[in-house]
Amino acid sequence: MLAVLSAPLLLTGPAVAAEEGSEIPVVAVARGDASTAQSSIPNGRYEFAVHGVYRYDGGTVAYWSVRSDTAYDSDELSDPRKFHWRRGNFENSGFGISEASLVVRERGELYTTLLADEGAGICLCTNALVLDDDEPQEWQTVYAAFAELPAEVTRVSMHLDGYGTVVHDVPVSDGLPQPQVDAETVPVGQGWPTAPDADAVEQAAADRSGGPIWVLHEPGGAADGSWRSTSSGEEETVDISADVLFDFDEATITAAADRALDDVAARIRASGARSATVIGHTDSTGDEAYNQDLSERRAHAVEQALKSRLPGIALAVEGRGETEPVAPNDTDENRALNRRVTVVFVGGED
């Protein structure tokens, strides 16, 4: 959930101080702690405050703030430059915060930080060497630029540091936060490092080895939108719309669901899978306990419908209620995406 901090409010844990009267959006606070055993270059202990991802004409920029954890204020390793510098000290990475990436889960895509000069390792992002090491416990806002996200993308997962620190459901806003400041890093609350212009993003995207967008899994689905699938290696996940499967607030399969169930059964057979898991999901409308029960009843209904189509294939059933949305429950369209029954299977099982 989006938290908006206005000085002198505190988050649980670190405080994000802002200038009087300013508001700093904070999506989440995370912590990174790299192992010194990975390199002879020492690494500190760090906190991150993720502010958001912003789509603008020609590009996308992510903003977050970093500081050394105050619990280690006397630790000689707590230098924010060294943490990010070590992750950048590889061929074609340079001295930037170049390990950040954005994942659009529903599209199976990973957006990589863009490099202005790949050979020299100069990224369209904050250079770690400009971070203030004199006051490492003070929040410093940094940025990384990416190719422009599609207009329909409203949330992403963000990998912050190259060490596995990931924040999910980061909102994507249209337009840049203000004021934009001509600097690679800005003390929190005093503005935002200027995002690169569209020409710089376009050139960096064209020059990026492997392209600026990496495919993590292949999406597919029915032309009428009744089901959609994503594949990662041998595992496939199929989401069937509950609005196709059931009438409102019901758990009895409708006749209109036959074609979608036939399609899903055919995919399972063709994969060579010998088992599958059927998982029910709801939106967040109504009582949580009721939604949990409804998700279980709907999963069992789909399991029975698939059982007759898939003799010899073991089917497990789960209900997860409203706990795993794929979109915010803020519009009718997004709530419809969350009302679904998911079938997960692995092809080529022995």
TrEMBL record:
Record-linked PROSITE patterns: OMPA_2 (PS51123)
InterPro entries (UniProt xref): Bact_OuterMem_StrucFunc (IPR050330), OMP_bac (IPR006664), OmpA-like (IPR006665), OmpA-like_sf (IPR036737)
Subcellular location(s) per record: Cell outer membrane
Range of residues in the leader sequence: 1-17
Main location group: membrane
Keyword Isomerase among record annotations: no
All residue ranges annotated as the OmpA-like domain in the record: 233-349
Record keywords: Cell outer membrane, Membrane, Signal
Keyword presence, Transport: no
Recorded coiled-coil stretches: none
Superkingdom as given in the UniProt entry: Bacteria
PANTHER family found in the cross-reference section: LIPOPROTEIN YIAD-RELATED, STATOR ELEMENT OF FLAGELLAR MOTOR COMPLEX
Protein name: OmpA-like domain-containing protein
